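Budget justification, computational time. The allocation requested in the original proposal was used primarily to generate structure tokens for proteins on the priority list. As evidence of use, we reproduce two of the resulting records. The first is shown immediately below.
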Amino acid sequence: MPQGEAAGRGAAQPQDQGWAWMVLLAAVVLQGLTLGFPSCIGVFFKDLQHEFQASNSQTSWFPSIIVAVLHGGGPLCSILVKWFGCRFVVMLGGLLSGLGMVSSSFCRSISQLYLTAGLITGLGSCFSFQAGVTVLGCYFVRWQTLANAVASTGVSLGFTLWPLLSQYLLDKMGWRNTFLIFGGILLNCCVCGAIMRPIQPASGSLLESAKPKEEPGSGTEEAQLSNGASPHHSTLQKHTRRTKCFQMLQKYLAFDIFCQNKGYQIYTIGVAWTMMGFALPHVYLVPYAIHNGVEEGKAALLISIIGLINIFIRPFTGLLSGHRVFTGRRIYLYSLAALLCGLSNFICIISAEFSVLILYCVILSIAMSGVGALTFQVLMDVVEMDRFSSALGLFTILESITLLIGPPLTGFLVDITSDFHYVFYNSSFFLISAALFMGLSFCALEKKNKLKEASKACLDNPSRYQYSETSTEPKTESQYPPAVQYITSI
């Protein structure tokens, strides 16, 4: 098909209306299926532990791997989207997710579960989620912010429904048959991907083309190498490969931004440290409640309460943070939300009564809404938008590493001490320390930048900041000494 004809056909497809709203509905379902799915793993914690005779630490590797791969597979997903387009990647992710859960129902050891339900399902969920978010940038231009906010409600719906469905199926047919059914449910990501038919992106949207663009000069250089124009053919070829690898790392893992941008550096380290404790209640809250005599059905309901409150609070948090009063200050809202998450954990330490745990879930869900709604918005504040995708790659990989090691580390402490309170001690420590680190660091950075700006303004326009000190004795013009100037800053 000629390029002009393809462009014309793409331009004929309306954006921000019509089929775009079907794509948005698919994105809501997609986020509920992918990001919401790890919330139900705690329901199976005790059954898996008993089935495989595994410790708390060994069992917690399972949800940790899912969440870590879900967050850390972003750069790989970006490469696949570049080559094959969003629709293909969403459907590939759905196929992998379903295959992983079906395979996990036949596992005979906990290590096999790490591979099937952990790695394969986590990677599939990553592909479906991130490609589904990316395609919204093609279908929505004017209403892009609204579309992303509406799509994120799917996460809260998933948090609400997955635990309830998991507990019901677990009671009726056991964890193996439940995982088999989950495989069929996750295959619906393929249906969502089928709805996301290709569209010609508008200028300025996230995707300009699903096909890779050839970098200038690369074809000529490769042609010279293949024709043997250089006597150092192999050396140049190796150098070219190293250059391309460096360019790929620069594009998808922005180490240069991390070294040069102090705000990005502080925020990335702070969020990575936050995630060491952020996921712990999701993994251990249900086992903790069951361990303290709460019925299994009521224990699963606790996670659903968190998701239900998130449905209403998260959009409100997004609207509040978008007010012009908070422009440039959203990092402090994020730090406050992380601090509240950490402080709320002390409620569980005081008591494990079901009514007290409900209060804990209400406060935790409000704080979690702030963290979830602001994570990427703050990143947009500290990084220029033309390098945002690169900054996001390194950001998600560091975040996934701490998400991976946090729950098993805490599980190891619980195994040694036989005390579930260490879950909430650890979570509070990481969240509170990260919140204080980010808040105080950005406050100091802001003061430092203001001093630099004042100093620069002083040097650019010194006449505003000068005064003369002269002698009061009358002197002739020829005897008058040059004025002594003092540069001061306001």
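The second record produced under the same allocation is shown here.
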Amino acid sequence: NSGVVCLLRPLLLDVIPSIRQTVALALGRLADYDVGMAEAVVKAGILPQLICSLPEENRYYKKAAAFVLRAIAKHSPQLAHAIVQCGALEMLVICLEDFDPGVKEGASWAFGYIARHNAELSQAVVDAGAVPLLVLCIQEPEIALKRIAASTLSDISKHSPELAQTVVDAGAIAHLAQMITNPDAKLKRQVLSALSQIAKHSVDLAELVVEAEIFPVVLTCLKDSDEYVKKNGATLIREIAKHTPELSQFVVNSGGVAAVIDCIGSCRGTVRLPGIMTLGYVAAHSENLSMAVIVSKGISPLGTCLIEEHEDHIKAAAAWALGQIGRHTAEHARHVAIANVLPTLLDIFVDTRSSEDLKMKASRFKALKNILQKCTYLPALEPLLHEAPPNIMKHVIGQFSKVLPHDSKARRLFVTTGGLKKVQEIKAEPGSLLQEYINTINNCYPEEIVR
């Protein structure tokens, strides 16, 4: 407000190097504060002056200049675009080739803040020739430089298969895969994130990541003391498993499903989410893979998540995963029903505090319907007769109408537990599917018992 930015601008061209460095640092701190400050720095015409003599400057100035560019770029795509337009990327590439690791780190950081916004800005970073140099940076001995370079490769890869392919073509996967065993937790986070962002786009890219022999090493990350290493490790496994039955089978054969189940049981909150999704993706592919999740005792931890977690999106994911496990055959649905998760799913559906997204996933459209349409295990269905709303009741009654005509023991139990009595109390539209189900059930009994 006092016009300091305009007073600082001519000092960027001062003959004394220490003044130029200190001015750049001051501008960086101003721009870093909020988007309005960053816009003021750009509008004052600082950027061209900041970078005009960058190649000839010393390492301290280069670090300070990279800090200014990063501080401006982080706030919005528009500000990042302003940096691209003033020709800063070419100057940052020169910094990536600098001998000093601190200068490389500053440039990597700036590239990351530019690339993370969208595919267009990420492509501009690629076109400037930054990717091969970033791959060289992850091979440097300095841990801080490795972290930032891996993070920037992750930010470039995330937007599209083409951008991820550029990172792969520069030879990044092999070097990233080797660093999964590095003891530095912050580096492991970034490495796992970068591999996840590459693997998520397509089967081919996921297979390239798997071919770098990340299994079974990546499973050790699920036991790491750092929560983000756990989460990013589970995310990487999820991004591989989701593509094809073959990749899911590879994860199962490597012990991945058992490790993910252990991970879900040992943590809380959003750290659980990628693991929950992994089980859902694996189970969705085929009957055999779903049975692999069941055999590895995956149902119980998912049921626990429904009860323990407070965030709706985590409950929704657990409900979805259970639906994927139970939807294949009567045997799969029986395993889910025996684990006593159906009443919990129903409670979530009828709870007025549940979000609409969660209700949809736990409702007839998703988990409950998937499981109920296959479930012939009547002891688990019977409690739902007394609690389910009409849209769920239809599927419950439907399953009874399928089983009772062929099972005399079940017919006797259905009377003694009050199930048949409950059916008589249901008001169904004449001619509706529900009325047909009720008629089928009533036809299993003599008229006087129905009366």
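A brief technical remark on that second record: Residues 284 and 324 are 5 Å apart (CA to CA).
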